[in-house]
Amino acid sequence: MEPLRASDSRESAPAPYRVGVMLPLPLDQAYDYAVTGGNCAPGAYVVVPFGKRDVVGVVWDSGDGALPDSRLKPIESRLDLPPMTESLRRLVAWTAAYTVSPVGSVLRMALSVPSAFDPPRTVVTYVATAATAAAARTEPVRRTPAREAVLALLADGRARTAAEIARATGSGAGVIKGLAAHGLVETVIATGEPEFPSPDWQRPRALLSAPQREAADRLVERVDRRAFSVTLLDGVTGSGKTEVYFEAIAAALAAGCQVLVLVPEIALTAQWLDRFAMRFGARPVGWHSDLSTTQRRAIWRSVATGHAPVVVGARSALFLPFPDLGLVVVDEEHDHSFKQEDGVIYNARDAAIMRARFEGCPAVLVSATPALETVENVYRGRYDRLALPERHAGATLPAIAVVDMRKETLARQSWISPPLRDAVAAALGAGEQAMLFLNRRGYAPLTLCRGCGHRLQCPNCTAWLVEHRLQRRLQCHHCGYHAPIPDHCPRCDAPDSFVPCGPGVERLNEEALATFPGARIAVMASDTLHGPAAAAALVGAVQAREIDVLIGTQVVAKGHHFPWLTVVGVIDADLGIAGGDLRAAERTYQLLHQVAGRAGRADRPGRVFLQTYDPDQSVMRALVSGERDRFIMAELAERRRCAMPPFGRLAAIIVGGPDEAAVEAAAAAFARTAPRDAAIEVLGPARPPLAVLRGRHRRRLLVKTDRATNLPAILRAWIDRVRVKGSVRVQVDVDPYSFV
Ligand code: ADP
Ligand code: ZN
Q: Whose CA is nearest to atom 1 of ligand 1?
């Protein structure tokens, strides 16, 4: 037997006991370790030997006893951090079960900041000594301007690092050391954890309108009750939904709880952050992929110790270690970016509701175009609904009209119709702004050879390469492959023969520059914005009216408030419907509604132009008539008829790998072993549109059941039955949003 390490030297060492430790590795079960002394209750973060390395894991249970005592290894150490709460552990377990993923893979998302487990760092800081003032008068210290500047900075009594002092005064270490030698400054060892300012809920709130007040009061009631509930805050664009849920945040802070706000795209929330700061006097903590390791560590630890009262973030913020969550808000709850499409495939909106449930706190879903699933949950009485039917301060909803492109005459290689052109020109003439929306990045979606029609395809994916003229290259939007435009056609060898087909935002920009001479035009797309700061700068420029026409992809639709924007043109309103998947109509409606909602948000009325070849399509009709609920009812009726979600359940099994034959064989094995049950329908295996992605061949099966069936459990048992070759990877996508 390996000796169990004694944790202290008291005479009667406590008897060792066993714990099950879950590791952040793609494994489903916890591993048993021995603990001697100390408190190692479930939730404790521990370092344990695993194979040849040490791994940080979480004590999960009291062990399964599979390993005899004699082979049990002791844990290396227990980390000095508040334990992972039971509610977060339940969320990890629930997410794993629901998405058919190993528990350890989900745990890994909750331990995504390895540096958070390093011991607290200490830093050397400098403060002015109490003797400073007197000493300065009496001692013969040479008072250089550099020394004066440092003393002036430190006069407020705050400790600062040498780097901070250098940044503020330009004085280096030599100056500080000189002052220290004279006893004017002393060193203090401090922990290097930055502190986040606390939002102040007591600051004066906005004067809410009667409907806003009513909705806010109901949300506050729920926060005060400290029990699980789900409320849909359903308000038209510009109705002040944000102001309303700020009151719920204030109530949670007043109760001493933490708040999590999930947003679809943290990089685009500059205006939201400013509004938050105006209401609460401090910015909330932002959690996103653009943070440095140091920032991530600081935030993770502050959340864990309860020092970060409000966190706003994208999906992954859901797995942060809040000890005392009092409110979860999901803004733009219908947004598809809440669905994580790789690794553990989960929907953060749904997981957020589960987190609120395990925490015993309210969840608030916010949208002007709620997801059909959410609407159905309201009908069933599982969620409450609060409505804000009007725009704030008398602003009216924009007038939406279709432009029937079958009847318009456009010049070759142009996409802005005469009615849209005239409306934009008129707006610019009146000193207002316009937005042109086209959900296509780059210059042209297709590039082909004029001589032989050869199209340029990605070598790694079943996808055409897209020309990005600003970067002077062709790009694959699936794998990031890029290459220069060839000067000879690889098939017919014709020189300079490649021509762009169709428009992307860059090409639309060219047309707009020619059509609206003198106008200040900017393009906003995910690949032209480099990070949150660039996005904030562009949004700020539009707000300050330094931009007249904003051209963009779906990133322009997200939540921006531009009071001077009065005309919105949708260049190709049919674009999203073409795919024809389950949610194509719903998704297109939501997106176009949100784009349209950017127009006329203040005292100038807005106009929206939808360029379409199919004006009778139900999405166009619903947008023009404003009959959202009728559209939703019709879509729900159709889903019910086909027993599709939310009335039935769907899951996809995606088999992928570098060897096509092995992938085919694995897909066939899934088909062969499919559960035989009248309630379960299996479609496929099929070759998906993206038959090759990043050099891996793919096949898909779609599984459909009624609502009563426990689909994840069936999938798990099924996957356990199928043996696949080592190179083949099987992904499960429960409630799929993507069908490629
Ligand atoms: P939504 O999120 O519903 O689209 P917002 O919360 O962004 O609407 O509100 C639209 C605009 O109206 C924002 O500029 C917001 O500051 C302003 N607003 C909304 N309600 C109020 C209020 N009660 N007092 C002052 N301004 C408000
Ligand atoms: Zn590719």
A: 238
What is the pLDDT at residue 183? 84
Query: Comparing 6-111 with 395-440+503-636, is the CATH topology the same?
Result: no
Average pLDDT value for the chain: 91
CA separation, residue 427 to residues 194, 286, 395, 442, 549 (Å): 47, 36, 18, 27, 10
pLDDT tens for 405-415 read 999 999 999 99
Closest ligand (CA of 462):
2
Q: Calculate mean pLDDT across residues 648-672.
A: 96
The CA–CA distances, whole Å, from 699 to 99, 242, 334, 686, 709 equal 19, 43, 28, 6, 24
Ligand 2 ion local residues (Cβ < 5 A): 458, 460-461, 476, 478-479, 481
In the predicted structure, residue 138 carries a pLDDT above the cut 60: no
Terminal alpha carbon distance of the chain: 54
- Minimum CA distance residue for ligand 1 atom 23: 208
340 phi and psi angles, rounded to 5 deg: -85, 125
DSSP 172: -
Q: What is the pLDDT of residue 348?
A: 97
What pairs with residue 569 in β-bridges? 436, 609
The residue whose CA has the least distance to atom 6 of ligand 1 is: 240
Query: Ligand 1: which residues within 6 Å by Cβ?
Result: 206-209, 212, 235, 237-243, 392, 561
The confidence score (pLDDT) of residue 118 equals 82
State in words which class domain 6-111 has.
Answer: alpha beta
CA 473 – ligand 2 centroid, Å: 14
Query: What is the CATH architecture assignment of 395-440+503-636?
Result: 3-Layer(aba) Sandwich (3.40)
Give burial (CB, 10 Å; 0-12/13-18/19+) of 94. Answer: middle
In one-letter notation, the amino acid at residue 502 is G
Sole residue written with tokens 């419907």: 577
Q: How far apart are the CA of 690 and the centre of ligand 2, in A? A: 10
* Nearest CA residue ID for atom 4, ligand 1: 238
Separation of 476 CA from ligand 2 center, angstroms? 5
Distance between Cα 715 and ligand 2 center (Å): 30
- Would you say domain 648-734 falls under CATH 3.30.70.600? yes
Tell how far the Cα of 384 is from the centroid of ligand 2, in angstroms: 44
Question: What's the mean pLDDT in 497-515?
Answer: 95
Hey, where are the domains in the chain? 6-111, 122-191, 210-393, 395-440+503-636, 442-502, 648-734
pLDDT at 226: 94
CA of 241 to the centre of ligand 1 (A): 7
CA distance 407 to 89: 59
Tens-digit pLDDT profile for residues 140-180: 677 788 888 888 888 887 888 888 888 888 888 888 888 88
| 48-84 pLDDT per residue, tens | 999 999 999 999 999 888 888 888 999 999 998 999 9
User: Which ligand sits closest to the CA of 563?
Assistant: 1
Q: Which ligand number lies closest to the CA of residue 474?
A: 2
Q: Is pLDDT above 80 for 191?
A: no
Q: What is the mean pLDDT of residues 665-671?
A: 96
Of ligand 1's listed atoms, the one at least distance from the Cα of 209 is 23
Give the residue whose CA is nearest to atom 25 of ligand 1.
206
Contact (Cβ atoms closer than 8 angstroms) between residue 576 and residue 603: no
pLDDT for 68 equals 87
CATH topology of domain 210-393: Rossmann fold (3.40.50)
